[in-house]
Structures are given as C-alpha cells and as structure tokens.
TrEMBL record:
Residues 82-352 form the Beta-lactamase-related domain. The lineage of its organism: Bacteria, Pseudomonadati, Bacteroidota, Sphingobacteriia, Sphingobacteriales. The keyword Hydrolase applies. GO terms for molecular function: hydrolase activity. Gene3D superfamilies: DD-peptidase/beta-lactamase superfamily (3.40.710.10). Keywords: Hydrolase. This is Serine hydrolase. Pfam families: Beta-lactamase. The keyword Nucleotide-binding does not apply.
Length: 367
C-alpha cells in the first residue's frame, strides 16, 4: 500500500511539473534541430507567388576537401560532420544543393541563433517605417519596467552590437542559468523583468541571447497590436517569395512572446533568401524591403563604443573582406559573400570537427 501511495505521489508530481523549465531541460536537453516540435509557435504563411532559385546550367560543385594532406569527397565530408543541408547559390543560381540523413528540401530545421539576424532585420524595417525612432533610443522607452533595474542608459544600438553590459549566463548546460530559462521556460516577460546589468553599456562586446530577446520585446511593443511573427510574414516572408510556410517558437500558447534570440523554423532555401535580401542591399526585385543603409550598418566593421569588429547588428563578420553571416549553435549558417555574389546555407545536427567560420569563406574563394 505504501509503495502504491509513493507511486501515485510520484506520478502526480510528474504531471504537475511536466511543463516547467527544469523538466523540459531534463527531458529535452541538449538542444536539437527538431526542437520546433516541443514548443508552441506561430505560423508564418508563405507567398502565393514564390521565388524559386534557378538551377545553374553549368554548376560549379565542390569536389573535395583537403585535410591534413588528404583529399575527401565533399559530400562525404559533409555527411561525416553531421550536415543535413548544404546549399551554394551564386548569381541567383543553385550551384550545389544536397541533403543528408533523411533530410530533404522540404525538411524543417530550427534556426537557433540565426534568428538573431532575422530579428535585426525586423528592427531595421520598423525603424524605416517610423515605428522605432532610431537605434539611439533608450530601450526603456519601450520597456519602462526595466528602469528600476538600471537600464536607463541602454540603447537599442547596444543590444544590436551586444555591448549593453547585460548580466546574462549564456551557458547551455546549466539548468538554472538564463539560457535555460529563456529557451525552456514559459514566461519570457517575467524573466526579462528580472534582468540586471553587470557593467555600463558601451564598454565591451559580450555575446548573450538575452540582448536579442530584449530587442524582441522592444519590437513587440513598437508593433503594438501585431505579433512579431505577423510582422515577419507581412514584411519579409511573403515579399521575398518564400517557398514554404515557417513558424516562430513562442514561450507560451496564450499571449506568447516570440523567442527572438533563437527559434525561426524554416527550410534551407528560404533561409537562403534572407541572405539574398542582404546580398541585394535590402531589395527583393524592385521592392526595397529594408533600407540599404540598414544593411550597410548591419554588416560593416565598427569598433566604436566597445563594439567588436567581427559582430555588427546581430550579424557575424568572419573576415575583413566584406562577407558576413548569420549563425546558430550546432552549425546553422547563412553565409553571404558580396564580392562573389554568393550565398551558402549549412544546416546540421552538430558542428562536427569543422570550423565553419573559416570553412565557408574558404569554399567561397573557390567560386
């Protein structure tokens, strides 16, 4: 009888805590590119007139990879390093496209931190439309509840450049850290209200996901009665002619907030169109989706006010040669090389034994 009561008690406890952050962390940790299945989300509808990349008539396909004096077939190298999708587009034509481990052109992959670059894009559009005045606005104009926490001097620019001085634990293996709360928790607004600063804004670069989530709340407040997902659909997904629907994971079903630091769920070709937009200086066809000025500011080298040369407005700069990229954990990449008129997308279950920050620019030089 005693064991029966213990079993019932344990069962009730499991039911009660099933949706809590710690349980999610224990059950689902570590992050996986299929995590879009475990969170509530908002759907982002596709265009009725999709843009489809042409297939190159004379594709220039990478044949091999040289490593420690040995040559490896390119496809096998990708497979061995846990790649599920690899796409090379030059001059709007597909030079290489391949999928592995039962993934296909239609397979959904979680973006992880590539969503940071998409969030930046939406901030730029909101500024273009006058919904946000400028990057020099204090974020407390939109999140006044952070004033008592010492955020009066934090500007939108600081969040974009990761120089806000935010006290935020980025460790993905700590169930009690900030990232676990933001990723697995179900009340982002409450978590945001508890944030503090570790140092004065504008002093140094420190990459943390909390800064992008603050941008997401700024954006939501600027949009007023429109969700961040709806804004992405109206201003980006449909105008760019995305081929597939997407979704953006939110923290909770009712009145949820988009996880703007991580979780856009889409396909390789549509991720490539985000790169294409920036390659074309903010234009899609004859339509200016985001200002050329925003694209330039987002991807230029700048070390003023504590900014790092290799990171601007939520985009990474892998070299000083004008290329830039969005990237997420486990090796998700949208890489853009304007001098080569080239875009690459790499999606993977793990990074493998590859430094993709160096590998992608090296592949680009072969075109």
């Amino acid at each position: 009888m005693k064991s029966r009561f213990l079993f019932i008690g344990l069962l009730l406890t499991m039911v009660v805590v099933h949706s809590c952050k710690l349980t999610r962390f224990v059950v689902y940790n570590y992050a996986n590119i299929t995590d879009y299945k475990i969170f509530p989300s908002r759907e982002i509808n596709t265009s009725s007139t999709p843009f489809v990349f042409a297939q190159s008539e004379n594709p220039r396909t990478p044949k091999k990879v040289e490593l420690e004096g040995k040559d490896y077939p390119f496809d096998q190298y990708l497979i061995d390093n846990h790649t599920v999708a690899f796409l090379v587009i030059q001059n709007d034509s597909i030079q290489y496209e391949n999928y592995f481990n039962d993934y296909s052109q239609a397979s959904i992959v979680a973006s992880f931190s590539m969503a940071k670059s998409i969030t930046s894009l939406l901030i730029g559009i909101a500024i273009d439309e006058g919904l946000i005045k400028s990057v020099d606005e204090p974020i407390t104009n939109y999140i006044p509840e952070l004033l008592p926490n010492g955020f009066a001097a934090v500007k939108i620019r600081h969040l974009l450049q990761m120089t806000s001085g935010l006290d935020f634990n980025e460790g993905y293996q700590n169930p009690f850290g900030h990232v676990a709360t933001f990723y697995y928790g179900n009340n982002l607004r409450k978590a945001i209200n508890k944030l503090k600063l570790a140092e004065q804004p504008g002093e140094r670069f420190r990459y943390t996901s909390g800064q992008t989530q603050l941008l997401g709340l700024v954006l939501e407040r600027a949009l007023k009665n429109k969700t961040v997902s709806t804004y992405l659909e109206e201003k980006v997904w449909q105008p760019l002619g995305m081929e597939y629907k997407a979704s953006w994971s939110i923290d909770r079903k009712k009145d949820g907030l988009e996880k703007t630091f991580c979780c856009v769920n889409a396909r390789a070709r549509d991720f490539a169109k985000i790169g294409r937009l920036y390659l074309n200086k903010g234009k899609s066809g004859d339509r200016q989706i985001v200002s050329e000025k925003w694209v330039r500011e987002s991807t230029k080298i700048d070390t003023s006010d504590g900014s790092a040369w290799f990171y601007q407005y939520q985009w990474w700069l892998p070299t000083k040669e004008g290329d830039f990229m969005a990237k997420g954990i486990l090796g998700q990449f949208i890489y853009v090389n304007p001098s080569k008129n080239l875009i690459m997308v790499r999606l993977g279950e793990k990074t493998g034994n590859v430094d993709w920050n160096k590998f992608l620019p090296e592949i680009a030089q072969g075109y």
